[in-house]
Amino acid sequence: MPSEHTEVQVRPGVEGDLDALTALYNHYVLETAITFDTAIFTPEERRPWLLSHPVDGPHRLMVATAPDTQEILGYSTSSPFRMKPAYATSVETTVYVAPDAGRRGVGTLLYKALFEALSGEDLHRAYAGIALPNEASARLHERFGFRHVGTYREVGRKFGRYWDVAWYEKPL
Alpha-carbon distance 72 to 20, whole Å? Predict the structure, then answer.
């Protein structure tokens, strides 16, 4: 009997996903410190973000969907680490899973697909920042070969308090 997450489909994100991706991200903006954005976005405001992740190249967007409904269960991205040219072979990666899709292996499937897509790119390192506490994200990153390289203490303020961010890196 296959596990529940094996039926999840992962594919590159497309413009038709914009509304659902925006709604998913806005959940994390409003309800968590996982992102340090503090105001929700409209789909039009998120369009440049989506378009900055084409189906090829080092900056990708992978989307997980339910096989029966095509509902978006989560997404992963690789984005520029910093804007200066010498950072071009580094990316920052992230995963967002829908609140009702946790603990189903969706994050694992998304990262597997993302790193497979990136395997032929001229990339040297992937970095990930994890707002603390977030043991599930730390475990996911460690499973994919990331190692903790440092923590910025009280680097972000949201919901009236300061949050630490642990930084992880992975050779590509």
Answer: 7
Beta strand 125-131 pairing with 9-12: unpaired
154 phi, psi to nearest 5 deg: 45, 45
Claim: this prediction has a pTM higher than 0.85: yes
- Alpha-carbon span 87 to 71, nearest angstrom: 35
* 3 state DSSP class of 94: strand
Residue 30 is predicted with a pLDDT of 97
Inter-CA distances, 100 with 7, 93, 104, 171, Å: 16, 22, 9, 31
- The pLDDT tens digits of the residues spanning 61-78 come to 999 999 888 899 999 999
Beta strands 90-97 and 125-131 are parallel
> DSSP for 60-86?
-EEEEE-TTT--EEEEEEEEES-SSGG
Of the pLDDT bands very low, low, confident and very high (cuts 50, 70, 90), residue 121 is: very high
- Residue by residue, DSSP assigns 113-162 as HHHHHHTTSS--EEEEEEESS-HHHHHHHHHTT-EEEEEEEEEEEETTEE
